[in-house]
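dumping this here before i forget
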Amino acid sequence: MPEPRSQVAPDTCYKRRVRREFSAGGVLVRRMAGRSWLAAIQPGGKPPGTWALPKGLIEEESPEVTALREIEEETGCRGQSLGKLGDVRYVYTFAGERVFKVVSFFLVRYTGGRIGDIPPEFRQEVAEARWLPLDEAPRLLAYRGEREMAARAIEALDDL
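structure:
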């Protein structure tokens, strides 16, 4: 039985439990006017110009289905998955608890819908959705891992 905390030497190291979260998201792309575009969102509560990729927690579905669902909920657009681009891993703190998060991203080709046509129940999560030039997305997206996924999307589309 471990000693009560008050009787343990002050230099003893304790490992904190870290909660794990698994999410999925998508790099939704389309061609318009001879140029490739990426669907980006401004998350609710973030300053204007904070662009991110649509993503959300994996529920009782596959990561790929989650990515397609999140894209539609957060952008108003639908797409067809072209495959997994990769994972982004990071740690954040929420309400004093450390969370290790893995987000799987998929490359998704636009098939329909209207950017910004977001259902009312998701309006608090997303302040705005818009098309950004794909070649500028690695510079315009706010988060390092998502900028990397945009760069991978550019490479993957070049190979198609």
